[in-house]
Design a protein that fits this description.
This protein has about 725 residues and is an alpha/beta fold. It has three domains: about 80-130 and about 270-315 and about 330-570, Malate synthase, domain 3 (TIM Barrel), CATH 3.20.20.360; about 135-260, Malate synthase G - maily-beta sub-domain (Beta Complex); about 585-715, Malate synthase, domain III (Malate Synthase G, Chain: A, Domain 4, Up-down Bundle). The strands form six sheets. An eight-stranded parallel barrel has the order 3-12-17-20-21-22-23-24, surrounded by six helices. It has a seven-stranded antiparallel sheet with strand order 4-11-10-9-8-15-16. It has a four-stranded antiparallel sheet with strand order 1-2-18-19. Helix 1 (about 15-25) packs parallel to helix 9.
């Protein structure tokens, strides 16, 4: 690897050239000045970053020792809580306050809807996610199990009629006409009176209007024959397309050929859990795609059905408004960038002392530098903000460090203070129990908090590793601590003034092929007071958007403000099995389920550098998995090993058994390398085993250190 010596830094030429030749041109940043200031800040902050990581380990050792000393007697929660306070783990909550963030785009502050998460290293996927702001409701229904019956390749008129019926029932419920159903309409026109346009709906010769006239926003085409009408409910737009020449338009009584709904209002472009970025080459690939999104010129060409297709960012959507003026609606999701956390370092830059640069510091500088291009064209943020989601922070001190880092970035790049907005991933136990104080540290730039079941459970397991064997993974969702955690996040957010100013988010639906179940279950997220929730695909975003028509989240939040608040002592209820008496069959099944998920994910991560995969579980249900899933599964087996629920030999046999199954599941992938051909030489298999057998010693139970090591070894071997 070629190295550039610059300002006391040894920089990979790949990264250096990207910054100098691609990221900086078109901004007001001077290259030499940037590297000079960057070096000074990195060398100032890196030691602080390291001390914070060391503090995590110091605290964890104290917790481990406490459990070891107290495991022989009955657990006393009051003693436990007092102990956590004595070591600075559980902090005193100070006076109430409200967040003061300004310059926030409405997709975050005042509109509730789905949120996508997409790996930034895949340009095609990133473009799909950015373009998922608008989605075809007809296609989403026709192509998924929300509509009963077989989904075939051939046009199915019967299935299409079921879709039409479903959509019109939705319209009747959320955008009703006055005294008639949408199902009985046979024509739509626009009338004009006193310079104001109004839609008219015909059933035979009878004319009808919208029950709520304020839901009509605009239209396209001629008034006597409009090509579309634009409606709005709960701040979400619906574009009803009228075209009698399409297959659907021909069978619809009113010639409605399509219904386009506002879907993914925002998308987290992910540099963290869903990518495998271990060196300068990988990091630049991620940064380059983010830069393309910020410039608006990212494209991806691929082959589909024998044809080359080029995908670009969608343009804005234009309509004629009620008063005849032209209106424009944003054509793309608002993009947030998830940086990595504080733990990892990256070999792309070596500091004066020979250490690698903290990757989170690198991400903050480069992702913001790329976002400067959007400050000029305002194609993403119309308020001149860059949104950075920060994961895996442990407590207020680490959040405060992030605030300091962002202040330094703003100074170096010459942008207004608090231009960088922050999202706090509430996925570590020390952050959860001190969430209010975490928010206080960034009260002028906070725009997002959320709950993440998998990472949070992984940390729960690791923090309480010595307390005893953990309950079955599937039982975690029914546990006392988890329910309290989910409610606590909303309660704290609302008490800090998030409603109408910032997002309160909920976690991912992990089963992309089970949309019917998602439609039944995921309405719980807006009901919980969350104004965004994660989905795994544009199709899922389109379907999940319907929930935000049914539930006015901001009204829901007003109601929740008066409920009894969740309690910290319930969050600290450790999910251990006090008297495990599980059968060998049940234990092996749980081990197999965990092992399959680990292996199915790790083999693609290590061998192919794929950070997000659809991995079949033990029941052959495809699950979208990233490192969060890996963390919980590996920590679960490691915990059971430690507490002698299972043996090392038993786990080794299970790992080999499930590796053969994973090999079989991937046999059609031409790039796949079997693990079972030679377990001893398979780097992927050894990585999966190390995550389990060395799980207790991994910092906070994270998977990154081992994965990065193994992926670098694999790249070197290639």
């Amino acid at each position: 690897m070629s190295i550039v010596d610059k300002k006391g830094l040894k920089i990979s030429s790949t990264l250096f050239e990207f910054v100098n030749n691609e990221a900086i041109p078109g901004t007001d940043v001077n290259s030499d000045d940037f590297w000079d200031k960057f070096s000074k800040i990195v060398h100032e902050l890196a030691p602080i970053n390291l001390r914070l990581i060391e503090k995590r380990e110091t605290i964890q050792k104290k917790i481990d020792d406490w459990h070891k000393s107290n495991n022989e007697k009955e657990f006393n929660k009051i003693e436990y809580i007092n102990f956590l306070k004595s070591i600075g783990y559980l902090l005193e909550q100070k006076e109430d306050f409200k967040i003061e963030t300004t310059g926030v785009d409405q997709e975050i502050s005042s509109i509730a809807g789905p949120q996508l998460v997409v790996p930034v290293d895949n340009a095609r996927y990133a473009l799909n996610a950015a373009n998922a702001r608008w989605g075809s409701l007809y296609n989403a229904l026709y192509g998924t199990d929300v509509i009963s019956g077989n989904i075939g390749e051939e046009w199915d008129k019967e299935r299409a009629n079921k879709v039409i019926s479903y959509v019109k029932a939705f319209l009747d419920k959320n955008l009703p006409l006055d005294k008639i159903s949408w199902k009985k309409i046979n024509k739509i026109q626009i009338t004009q009176k006193s310079g104001i346009y109004t839609p008219i709906f015909f059933s035979g010769e009878n004319k009808y209007k919208l029950k709520n006239s304020k839901q009509f926003i605009g239209f396209n085409g001629k008034i006597e024959n409009p090509s579309s009408i634009l409606l709005k409910n709960n701040n979400l737009h619906i574009d009803i397309i009228i075209n009698s020449n399409t297959d659907v338009g021909k069978i619809d009584s009113a010639s409605i050929s399509e219904v386009i709904v506002e879907s993914a209002l925002s998308t987290i472009v992910d540099n963290e859990d869903s990518v495998a970025a271990v060196d300068a080459e990988d990091k630049v690939k991620c940064y380059r795609n983010w830069l393309g999104l910020m410039k608006g010129n990212l494209s991806s060409t691929f082959e589909k059905n024998g044809k080359n297709i080029t995908r670009k960012l969608n343009p804005d959507r234009t309509y004629t408004s009620l008063d005849g003026k032209k209106i424009s609606l944003h054509g793309r999701a608002l993009l947030l960038n998830r940086n990595v956390g504080h733990l990892m370092t990256n070999p792309s830059i070596i500091l004066k002392d020979g250490s690698e640069i903290p990757e989170g510091i690198l991400d903050a500088f480069i992702s913001t530098l790329c976002a400067l291009h959007d400050f000029k064209n305002k194609k993403n943020s119309r308020t001149g903000s860059v949104y950075i989601v920060k994961p895996k922070m442990h407590g207020p001190e680490e959040v405060s460090f992030t605030n300091t880092l962002f202040e330094k970035v703003e100074e170096v790049l010459g942008i207004e203070k608090f231009s960088i907005k922050v999202g706090i991933m509430d996925e570590e136990r020390r952050t959860t129990v001190n969430l209010k104080e975490c928010i206080r540290k960034v009260k002028n730039r906070i725009v997002f908090i959320n709950t993440g079941f998998l990472d949070r459970t992984g940390d729960e397991m690791h923090t309480s590793f010595e307390s005893g064997p953990m309950i079955f993974k599937g039982d975690m969702k029914k546990s006392k601590w988890l329910n309290a955690y989910e409610n606590w996040n909303v309660d704290v957010g609302l008490s800090c003034g998030f409603s109408g100013k910032a997002q309160i988010g909920k976690g991912m639906w992990a089963m992309p092929d089970q949309m019917a179940n998602m439609m039944e279950q995921k309405i719980s997220h807006p009901k919980s007071g969350a104004n965004c929730a994660w989905v795994p695909s544009p199709t899922a975003a389109t379907l999940h958007s319907l929930h935000y028509h049914e539930i006015n989240v901001f009204d829901q939040q007003d109601q929740l403000k008066t409920r009894n608040k969740a309690k910290v002592e319930n969050i600290l209820e450790i999910p251990k099995a006090d008297r495990p008496n599980w059968s060998l069959e049940d234990i092996n099944r749980e081990l197999e389920n965990n092992a399959q998920g680990i292996l199915g994910y790790v083999v693609r991560w290590v061998d192919q550098g794929i950070g997000c995969s659809k991995v079949p579980d033990i029941n052959n249900t495809g699950l979208m998995e990233d490192r969060a899933t890996l963390r919980i599964s590996s920590q679960h087996i490691a915990n059971w090993l430690h507490h002698k629920i299972c043996t090392k030999e038993q786990v080794q046999e299970v790992m080999k058994k499930m590796a053969r199954i994973v090999d079989e599941q991937n046999k059609m992938d031409p790039n796949y390398k079997k693990m079972s051909d030679n377990f001893e030489k398979s780097i992927a298999f050894s990585a999966a085993c190390d995550l389990v057998f060395e799980g207790k010693s991994q910092p906070s139970g994270y998977t990154e250190p081992l994965l990065h090591k193994k992926r670098l070894a694999k790249k070197a071997a290639n």
